[in-house]
Fold:
Amino acid sequence: MEETEDFVGQGPHPVDDDLFKEPMKKRRRSDRDQRFRAFPSVEQSALKEYEKLESRTRRVLSNTYQKLIHSVFLDDSIPNGVKYLINRLLALIEKPSLDPIYIGLFGSTGAGKSSLINAIIQQAMFLPVSGESICTSCIVQVSSGCCEQYEAKIHLLSDQEWKEELKNLTKLLHRTEELDREEADAWDRDDAVEEAIWKLQMLYGNGAERKNYEELLRAKPKGKIPTSRIITLKAEEAEELSVKLDPYIRTHRRDLDGESAETQIWPLIKHVEVTLPKSEMIPEGVVLVDIPGTGDFNSKRDEMWKKTIDKCSVIWLISDIERVSGGRAHEDLLNESIKACQRGFCRDIALVVTKTDKLHLLEYLRERKVGNQAIQSQREAVLERNEVIKLQRNGILKEKLKRKLPADSKVLEASDLVYTVSAQEYWQQALLTEEETEIPKLRGYIRKRLLDKKRRMVTKYVTEAFGLLLLTDSFNCMENLPNEFLHMSGLRRFVEEKIQLLEKVIDQCFAHIKQPLQEGVRNAKASYRRILGTCLVRSRGNQGFHQTLKAVCLKNGIYASRTLARIDLNEAITQPIYDQIDPVFGGIFRAGKPTGSALLPHVEAFKHSLQEKMMEIGIRSGWKYDSYKKSFLIQEISAILGGLEDYILRKKRRIYESLTTSVQSDLKPCYEEWNHGEGEGKYRHHADPCFIPGGWSLQGACRRQK
Structure:
């Protein structure tokens, strides 16, 4: 076809052929240019060329598809090969232009995630910010799009999801009759119980905590709940939307009187999506995600918390300057981020230290241990401390990553693993310049990620289209459709043999995990008592143990709240196993040479062997149009096996989490026994985790994992 001749001859360079001209109803140039406002001129030029090439490729594919459909429209017997080609053309035409890049801002409460997002998008108070307490109470996604207005969609729990949480909240508030007064007072002061009371009162009013599950099902919520379970807010200006959005995503004080209708449905909010119109600071195709650091008591919200972390290709671990030196919360978040690299799509991790303008000069000078040069001002002290923190934390973070990830992981090659930022100074610039706040540096990082992904996507798309169009070009008319058949039996035998070899290689790859898995199981069996005790005992005496245990058992071993450290007993007692297998597991799924335990390079070698065989068959068959068909078939093999690689990476999460899910399944009868009240009275005076009903069948779980 004529379109293909022009396409093949030009390659990646712009052309003037009429076939490649933009359609009459093309997007106005001003609108198109506004999509690139977040990029400097050089990057804008590159993006425009990528989009132009992609657009013209789609136009050629669409024209080819229409002509091919027209040529076979009246034919009753369309060859299978033509049907396949038509379906492939349609699939390429409808293929999304670019999957969003999710950048997760992951940090404990009060770390400054919302302030950082506000600075990046150039909207000072867009998301709620407070120096007094927790602010953002749910997952908030911020992106830019083609819309003319600022828009927010507030997604609520479904009716069934809320009923599930309501049942668990009322179970948590139920006290046995055997509790004495001292124990009852301790129970009432427990954080899990306080939060349950607060949620019920917020939604149903005072006294709701004294009602049972059936009574609350009949009760009418104070706030209006839309049947669609989605609340959409729109505004012409950012400030206007911010005011409307604030009551839904801000954590409110528990002693607040006269709550608004928006505040009253806060316990039902699942997550929030915010879309900005044509932002100059955040390019279209990037999603910034404010991820609360501990998960959620509700199962669906907690599941979404994990899935959100896993779909992020970049995770910024947010820690303010006063907490960056460590602590359990910081370590837990770092470990969760590293696990996202192991089980999800995360490729980059960075530590973003916030609030770096906070410095007491006299204290700093007294404790200063670096440099001989005298400090003349607060600004010099802040800049010096920032450099020291970068040097120290970069080394610590890199060592931690080296212990958990393969030595050739891309994240270890990053030049910047630590950023020191100040959102406050970005706006005020009393001490630091705009560049010194490193907000522009983070924006540059975002742009680079998007530009690299767009380039890879367009290259892959054009290459795939090129193979299809080459073959299509040989179909000048129905009479010229190739009737030759491949030597199917020989090719089938070849593929089957290669698959058998690949299966053996896969077994060899996973065999490397056997020894560390066995070692990890031994360590888990030796340490589970200590681990369980550390997780469960949060206050003095046995009351703290049992109060926490009840909340944990309600959720099959998991308790998450917005104010306390996350508890996951299933994950905690398998952590010694993960400590042993992490480097090997990461090595199995890494890219590189087809040696050792790496799986994907062997899939790549399998692909190349099929492509070579296809070329050999083509030469032997004496294809009249062999260059077209060879290119097409070789490209199709890449496309099919490229999908296989994506499938493997998606399954990686399920494989990685099989340890914790298996242990949770083994312990589920124990959790249920406690939930039904059979273990509560029996073991109420014991604070040893071994007295959990059923003996916590860890031994059996570990044996099955082995």
The CA atoms of residues 147 and 277 lie 5 Å apart.
